[in-house]
Write a structure and sequence with these properties.
Strand content of chain B: 25-35%
Number of strands of chain B: 9
Number of helices of chain B: 5
Radius of gyration of chain A: 25 Å
Strand order of the largest sheet of chain B: 6-5-4-1-7
Order of helices and strands of chain A: HHHHHEEEHHHHHHHHHH
Radius of gyration of chain B: 20 Å
Order of helices and strands of chain B: HEEEEEEEEEHHHH
Number of helices of chain A: 15
Number of strands of chain A: 3
Oligomer: heterodimer
Largest interface: A-B, 89 and 75 residues
Helix content of chain A: 55-70%
Largest sheet of chain B: 5 strands, antiparallel
């Protein structure tokens, strides 16, 4: 009898563990089907097996979209402590329109809290993607780009970092493992004060990990190349000229001569990125008149 | 061996016969639209964790129904998972389904509040300002059209 129970449980576990997406089939429903399982295989055995599967799934689950959103908000608050927000509604509107256009053409047009693009009052040439979809671009960067298509290239690169969760990836794995131990598997919505304090500590350390990556060390070379390649696809899908990315990198290379700081310190050399970008350039014909009209609206909006 | 085969066959058959697939909204807010494209008129606003019934699939869009209204939603705005009226979300979507069933757990407003308490100098006020800045769908659609730009 025990063997039959084990075989039946194993069959259900195999189905669950294999990730078979059988909509709506729950272990208790399987157990309730007459003749499907041995009569002495009670629903609690099946439920127990299913609970174990769910616990394994939760214990190794990634950071959810809503959690990523709260992490992103805290990272944004850290950035805004160092770089003041440039509050110009006309420019902010324009940067949001360009940014939303490339985001709509990315793998992930929807995030939990949506995409938000904003300007930082700094002459440093830099841009930051916070987890969840807040993207910052400095006035120094806005001065470096010379057209809407180049601005789109910069923002597309940042949207790619959001899409690929590069910021979240810089959180030490052990921190998230510790967090999951506190979070547990039950769906209670509030914690006791001790648990909150412990989670806040892990949260803070996670924010530090990401902030250090964004502002001090930069992403890995592989992540930067991945973001560059993806941004070319977003640009082409949106109707922007993907070659604008190469144009921007040329300018960045020129700006980098004899200067340092910001993106020039945290990204691979523009010349290396240029080679990679040129090698991945999509074959796309762009209407030059439309590109000119976009450059015209850029010049009439970005007045410096 | 025969018994295992029968069990598997019945389980899979039960899956096929089961009621329509349910997905959950994974963004704070979203919309069920008239047609399966961005900027199509909104028929019904939906919120995080709302259960939508999938009627059909079309590329990156799902045709769904919610509270008697049917329309389209982008597949990236929802996560697979089945819904049991008495027991919440169960099975179907692996970790993704669990993340919805654990809504409110993990890094949440309670944790953010504790973090803010530790760092009163952090500029969350401007973070809220950045999030509140809205671009209307009409403005975005007009911007795309005038610039010769497209959406998928």
């Amino acid at each position: 009898m025990k063997i039959r129970i084990l075989i039946s449980s194993a069959a259900i576990l195999l189905i669950l563990l294999a990730g078979c997406n059988i909509p709506g089939v729950l272990p208790d429903q399987v157990a309730g089907l007459p003749g499907v399982l041995p009569s002495n295989l009670r629903s609690e055995h099946v439920e127990m097996a299913a609970r174990s599967v769910r616990a394994v799934s939760v214990a190794s689950r990634p950071i959810s979209d809503s959690e990523e959103y709260y992490v992103g908000r805290a990272v944004a608050a850290r950035i805004l402590q160092q770089y003041p927000l440039f509050k110009d509604s006309r420019l902010t509107q324009y940067v949001n329109l360009v940014g939303r256009t490339v985001a709509l053409n990315s793998e992930k047009p929807n995030t939990y809290g949506g995409y938000h693009f904003a300007l930082l009052n700094s002459q440093e040439i830099n841009a930051f993607a916070c987890p969840g979809g807040a993207v910052f671009i400095t006035l120094g960067m806005l001065r470096t780009v010379h057209s809407e298509d180049e601005l789109a290239a910069v923002l597309a690169h940042e949207v790619a970092h959001v899409n690929f969760r590069h910021g979240i990836d810089s959180i030490s794995k052990s921190r998230w493992t510790d967090a999951l131990a506190i979070i547990g598997t039950e769906a209670a919505k509030t914690y006791g004060s001790a648990d909150v304090a412990r989670l806040a500590g892990i949260f803070e350390a996670s924010i530090d990990d990401i902030f250090k990556t964004l502002v001090v060390n930069g992403y890995s070379r592989g992540q930067e190349e991945e973001a560059d390649r993806a941004s070319l696809v977003y640009l082409a899908r949106a109707g922007y000229n993907p070659k604008s990315m190469a144009g921007f990198l040329e300018r960045l290379k020129a700006s980098g001569r004899g200067s340092s700081g910001g993106l020039l310190d945290t990204h691979p050399a523009a010349s290396d990125r240029l080679d990679e970008v040129r090698g991945s350039m999509p074959d796309r014909t762009v209407n030059p008149l439309l590109e000119q009209s976009r450059t015209k609206r850029f010049s009439s909006t970005v007045l410096f | 061996m025969g018994r295992i085969a029968i069990i598997l066959a019945v389980v899979f058959s039960a899956g096929l016969l089961h009621a329509a697939e349910i997905v959950r909204v994974v963004t704070k807010e979203n919309a069920v639209r008239q047609q399966c494209r961005f900027f199509s008129p909104v028929k019904q606003k939906v919120r995080y964790n709302d259960p939508l019934t999938i009627l059909s699939r079309s590329g990156d869009w799902y045709k769904v129904s919610f509270r008697g209204v049917s329309g389209c939603i982008h597949k990236g705005a929802v996560v697979a998972g089945t819904y049991s009226p008495g027991g919440g979300l169960r099975g179907g979507g692996g970790a993704s389904a669990e993340e919805v069933s654990l809504a409110g757990k993990g890094f949440n407003p309670q944790v953010e509040a504790a973090y803010k308490g530790r760092h009163p100098g952090l500029n969350f006020r401007d973070v809220d300002l950045v999030e509140r800045f809205q671009v209307s769908e009409d403005a975005l659609e007009s911007f795309l059209r005038k610039g010769g730009l497209t959406t998928p």
